[in-house]
């Protein structure tokens, strides 16, 4: 099939590349000329495991192309994916100006029947608004479909190629059939393509992300409570998670959820509730608890240094909001860095992928180390913010020898409490007996 993808951000790029991988001819459109030029030269603009291999392969096979022309995109695709940004407005709602702006232009340029697909996470009712924006400009037949993505950063290619489910919100048989044909190669395993109305599809995405954020947040509160009563959250987590109704995944406590999705989507659903005279009390609490959780290590660090962090040398391992990504949006590390800088600490950080992004934000206020051990040289304490695999089994003797003091504040519970104490470390983690 011929497919066009409007917007080559994270979602658009993964969608376009993976659809090319199953033999479709994909044209990706972006207004950023520099970016398009680079992609034409084979440069992947984001870090995402496996993406570069697929990108390269499909460009070489002539199935993946790039352009800045919306008109070209519209003429090329039978299905046109909208993968445009929906940033968070000041009031927490999703800003639809990019999506609706593109819809209007599509209406102006439409020459024959197309299926227009909302791939971005958009508030309930957006498919109707996109339909209206296009219909205002044209009399040509078209359908709008909602097809939310469920990609995790770091696993996006895998998630796209082997989805647990595909959700299609459509009220047109013609559009549904085309979408089913497109996705069939991805669900050979027997996983379902679930067809529903557009509004339900739009809500499915927000409900799924908000539920997962709530699950994590609930566990963070249980962890905090464990500390108060002397219980061990690792035991509680396994005790709970083995109940198949609860499930083992997404029960890991830590320094809060971050990223480009959970924080934005929870707030947007909360706001959408308000707009429809419904108060999501539970989401209100999730937002509040997560804000506190991101800074949960700070009072402990303050207490350890007796409130005096001036010129203390603090090492940070992990800056990205989670491993396997360079994404720092809403990353807990940023909040911790900000607070430590305000206290006058001197920070040396290491992250395998995210240092450039953090550098752009904090400039020379912090130092970046070329590797994890350079970061801890003479450090008065180490703070772990992201659970990259390489941090899981460090050389503890090296840490003891090269740090100023053997002190670790672990926001991701990487080490066994007893083992690390036996190694002679002062160790503070989340929700476990010390
Ligand atoms: C999330 C969802 O998992 C995807 O299904 C969804 O498609 C995506 O948002 C999206 O809307 O685009 P992502 O934000 O990439 O994916 O990352 P997750 O792996 O879900 O992690 C989100 C945050 O939760 C991270 O900060 C992570 O550290 C935290 N987390 C996750 C925990 O604190 N504990 C856990 O047990 C799991």
TrEMBL record:
Residue positions of the active site: 261 (nucleophile)
Q: Which Gene3D superfamilies match?
A: Cytochrome c1, transmembrane anchor, C-terminal, NAD(P)-binding Rossmann-like Domain
Q: Where is the UDP-glucose/GDP-mannose dehydrogenase C-terminal domain?
A: 315-417
Gene Ontology biological-process annotations:
polysaccharide biosynthetic process; UDP-glucuronate biosynthetic process
Q: Does the keyword Ribosomal protein apply?
A: no
Catalytic activity reads: UDP-alpha-D-glucose + 2 NAD(+) + H2O = UDP-alpha-D-glucuronate + 2 NADH + 3 H(+)
Among Pfam families, the record links this protein to:
UDPG_MGDP_dh, UDPG_MGDP_dh_C, UDPG_MGDP_dh_N
Q: InterPro entries recorded for this chain?
A: 6-PGluconate_DH-like_C_sf, NAD(P)-bd_dom_sf, UDP-Glc/GDP-Man, UDP-Glc/GDP-Man_DH_C, UDP-Glc/GDP-Man_DH_C_sf, UDP-Glc/GDP-Man_DH_dimer, UDP-Glc/GDP-Man_DH_N, UDPglc_DH_bac
Give residues annotated as binding substrate: 150-153, 205, 250-254, 258, 322
Q: Name one GO molecular function term.
A: NAD binding
* Pathway assignment: Nucleotide-sugar biosynthesis; UDP-alpha-D-glucuronate biosynthesis; UDP-alpha-D-glucuronate from UDP-alpha-D-glucose: step 1/1
Please tell me where NAD(+) binds in this chain: 30, 35, 86, 121, 153, 264, 329
UniProtKB keywords:
NAD, Oxidoreductase
What EC designation does it have?
Answer: 1.1.1.22
Question: Which branch of life, at top level?
Answer: Bacteria
Instruction: Name the NCBIfam families for this protein.
Output: NDP-sugDHase
Say which family it is in. Belongs to the UDP-glucose/GDP-mannose dehydrogenase family.
Please give the name of this protein: UDP-glucose 6-dehydrogenase
Q: Which organism is it from?
A: Bizionia echini
